[in-house]
Amino acid sequence: MKKDPKTKSLYGQELLDLIEKMIQEYCITPQKGIIADSSVRYIAQKISIQEGNEEEMIKNYLEEVKRYLLLNITQYEKSDTSMRSEISDDVTEDIQEAHPDQ
After folding, report:
1. What residues contact residue 91 under an 8 Å CB cut-off, 6+ apart?
2. Which residues are CB-contacts of 26 (< 8 A; sequence separation ≥ 6)?
3. Angle at the Cα of 66 (from 60 to 69), degrees rounded to 5?
4. Quick one: pLDDT at residue 66?
5. Is the pLDDT of residue 88 over 80?
6. pLDDT by residue (tens digit) across 24-81?
7. Quick one: three-class SS letters along the chain?
8. Predicted TM-score of the model (pTM)
9. What does the alpha-carbon distance between residue 25 and residue 76 come to, in Å, rounded to a whole number?
10. What is the per-residue pLDDT for 14?
């Protein structure tokens, strides 16, 4: 292997270092792919034994999941709002207790 006389390192060492860094970053990054969740396997099994259009069943199932998620998100938002209101009330009370002359 040839070395650069100026830097005394191998020609292309910067490129090799960059490639090595990219490989390490790639290994750290979570891999996306098929979810290995038992609920997904369960639904896939249920759909596979049913008669009818599998794509339509999947579409209907995903719509149901979407509605359920949106419903839960809405409930959590309401819960968070009421919790923030309670916290705000507590902070106001604490301030009033700390400064009773105001």
Report:
1. none
2. none
3. 145
4. 92
5. no
6. 888 887 766 665 677 888 888 888 898 889 999 999 989 998 999 999 988 888 776 6
7. CCECCCCCCECCHHHHHHHHHHHHHHHHCCCCCCCCCHHHHHHHHHHHCCCCCHHHHHHHHHHHHHHHHHHHHHHHHHHHHHHHHHHHHHHHHHHHHHCCCC
8. 0.40
9. 35
10. 83
Residue 53 one-letter amino acid = N
Amino acid identity for residue 67 in this structure = R
Side chain identity at residue 27, one-letter code = C
Tokens 């292997």 belong to 1
Model confidence band, residue 83 (pLDDT cutoffs 50, 70, 90): low
Distance, CA of 35 to CA of 44 (rounded, Å): 12
Q: CA separation (Å) from 60 to 66, 72, 73, 97?
A: 10, 18, 20, 55
